[in-house]
Design goal:
The protein is built from two helices and five strands; from the N terminus they run E-E-H-E-E-E-H. It has helices at residues 32-41, 79-89; strands at residues 11-18, 24-30, 47-52, 55-61, 71-75. The termini are far apart.
Length: 90
């Protein structure tokens, strides 16, 4: 893969949410400087990957990867898996 890498330091908070399609999601509230870094880096890229400890835990494509109020929603298989990922990040 190529492109920007956001680290734990770029995340203000991690929590459980649901996508607009009512799917479980890991919500990542980014710090203000990281929001612009991600927005600039996404030009020309269509996928956003979330990785914890070297393993990809979620991927989102295209417009679904847009930030809403500084929050990036990463779809997860269940609310429990979203909670566990948020706990790891916090």
């Amino acid at each position: 893969t190529s492109g920007i890498v956001l680290n734990r330091e770029d995340i203000q908070n991690a929590f459980v949410a649901k996508t607009m399609a009512d799917e479980p999601a890991l919500a990542l509230r980014l710090k203000p400087e990281s929001i612009s870094k991600l927005a600039n880096a996404r030009k020309g890229y269509s996928h956003v990957l979330a990785s914890i400890n070297g393993s990809v835990v979620s991927t989102v494509e295209g417009a679904n990867g847009n930030l809403m109020d500084g929050v990036l929603l990463m779809p997860m298989p269940t609310l429990v898996s979203a909670r566990d990922a948020a706990d790891l990040i916090r």
